[in-house]
Amino acid sequence: MDGKHMQIGEVAARTELSLRTIRHYEDTGLVAPSARSQGGFRLYTEADVARLMVIRRMKPLGFTLEEMRDLLEATDRLDADEQPGAAEREALLSRVRGYERAATRKVEELRVQLERAEDFAATLRGRLEAAPPGSGTAPGPAAHV
Fold first, then answer.
1. Is residue 31 within 8 Å of 56, Cβ to Cβ?
2. How far apart are the C-alpha atoms of 98 and 107, rounded to whole Å?
3. Please, are residues 34 and 47 in contact by the beta-carbon 8 Å criterion?
4. pLDDT per position in the chain (145 positions), as tens?
5. Can you spell out the DSSP letters for 69-132?
6. DSSP class of residue 134?
7. pTM summary value
8. What is the side-by-side strand order in the sheet with 35-36?
């Protein structure tokens, strides 16, 4: 190999995605290996890794595969050697802006969920700290927290 290409195992390690997940994204058309070795192994570039990282970051925010595909198509077109005309460029940028706004909303929703989870954990911690020493039994799931 010439150092420009990586096999799927290295890509999996770098992106923290499983081989199965990378293959699934290939099957759904979100990513394609840039080349194949003489033995038929998938070979990826830094650009492929960057694309997988976009997908990996969108997934926990609840974006669908179709939304991922739409965003990647827009950014691919914006990054293409042949630049789109002014009207198409503005339409593509508008699509990307829409995904940025959606991502920001989803991050805020996750912050609220995280705050609630932290409050819940603190409540449980407080109950445990307030329990008499040596009581030996923890309250059951039906106990009021």
1. no
2. 14
3. yes
4. 445 899 999 999 999 999 999 999 999 999 998 898 888 888 999 999 999 999 999 999 999 999 999 999 999 999 999 999 999 999 999 999 999 999 999 999 999 999 999 999 999 999 999 988 876 555 556 555 5
5. HHHHHHHHHHHSSSPPPHHHHHHHHHHHHHHHHHHHHHHHHHHHHHHHHHHHHHHHHHHHHHSP
6. T
7. 0.77
8. 6-7, 42-44, 35-36
